Amino acid sequence: MTTSSAPSLALPVDDEELAQRLAERLRTVEVMLAGHCQGRTEFVSRAASHLMASGGKRFRPLLVLLAAETGPTPAADEVLVAACVVELTHVASLYHDDVMDEAALRRGADTANARWDNHVAILTGDFLFGRSSELTADLGPEAVRIQAQTFCRLVEGQILETVKPAPDEDPLAHYLEVVAGKTGSLISTSARYGAMFGGASTEVQEALTAYGDIVGSAFQLSDDILDIASESDESGKTPGTDLREGVPTLPVLMALGSTDPADARLLELLAADLTDDDLHAEALDLLRKHPAMDQARSYVLAQTETAKALLSVLEPGSVRTALEAFADLVATRST
Ligand code: FPP
Ligand code: MG
Hints:
With 335 residues, the chain is mostly helical. The protein folds into 2 domains: 1-200, Farnesyl Diphosphate Synthase (Orthogonal Bundle), CATH 1.10.600; 201-335, Farnesyl Diphosphate Synthase, CATH 1.10.600. Helices cover 70% and strands 1% of the residues. It has 16 helices and 2 strands. The chain has helices at residues 16-36, 42-53, 59-68, 77-100, 112-115, 118-137, 141-161, 171-197, 202-229, 232-235, 241-245, 250-256, 264-270, 277-288, 292-309, 318-332; strands at residues 105-106, 109-110. The protein has a two-stranded antiparallel ribbon with strand order 1-2. A hairpin with a 2-residue loop joins strand 1 and strand 2. Helix 7 runs antiparallel to helix 8 (171-197) and helix 15 runs antiparallel to helix 16 (318-332). The longest helix is centred in the middle third of the chain and has 28 residues, at 202-229. It is globular and about 60 Å long. The protein binds farnesyl diphosphate and magnesium ion. Farnesyl diphosphate is lined by residues 92-93, 96-97, 100-101, 125, 129, 154-155, 158, 182-183, 223, 227, 237.
């Protein structure tokens, strides 16, 4: 059986007891995840464990565990199962995403499509999604419905990314819809499952679902900013992938609004085919220095403030503070 190293808590939590509880449960989830990646054959187990074992921040399971702390049963078995469900769905989607992006690197390791091929990567994603669905059945019909709706939103967001906005559609609104679908949906469900299976009130469940939607979108916006700003040794991915693919993300959409003549070359490049290495490097360099980067970061910060305001339904205390810190971390993440 493949073993995975337990991740340290990616979140600063002031309350030592809460931090220990979360870290302990996350370790349990990690062992469960490694088990769920096992197939009937050695090859399937190896392919399915490949991405899970190469690390990852485990943001979604951590959010399930933390959101569960808003209710009376944060240690319930269902909470741990739900944490596995969201991470398995997430990792499954990454196998498919790396095929679509023709990505070679993720979490500092070869992607499955690079290590094996597209067929293996797609089928392994399906396998992990099957595992996730099987586990969701243990959580009951309401959880299955939520998982199915989440998955439809996730896939629709991803499909929408490949479709250009209609001529009368605002490109920023189109992009934000993509982001809310492909990433906001599953992070929202992570917060919702946590509150649900932790036994929180309906009011808290609804507030955390809305919080997760905003924090989830902010997570993807930060990811898109990092795609431009980071070097590959920091992010574990190939920088400038969105640019090369011609997918306009927040900093690009903000730069496109510029009327400054000094931006003429950048605008020309952004309208060009950036699969050419030299043009791609030039565009990446100009974008990194452009004020649109800070404008995009400010937008994300404002979003997370909105998300934190939704936490006012919770009693002040360490759980609420940790959820606020979670939102801050998403906005200021560097990996
Ligand atoms: C990352 O986007 C991708 C997602 C958040 C979702 C991708 C969803 C699918 C491919 C749907 C199919 C899934 C299954 C299991 C059938 P990104 O490329 O912007 O982020 P990255 O920088 O991490 O690659
Ligand atoms: Mg990708």
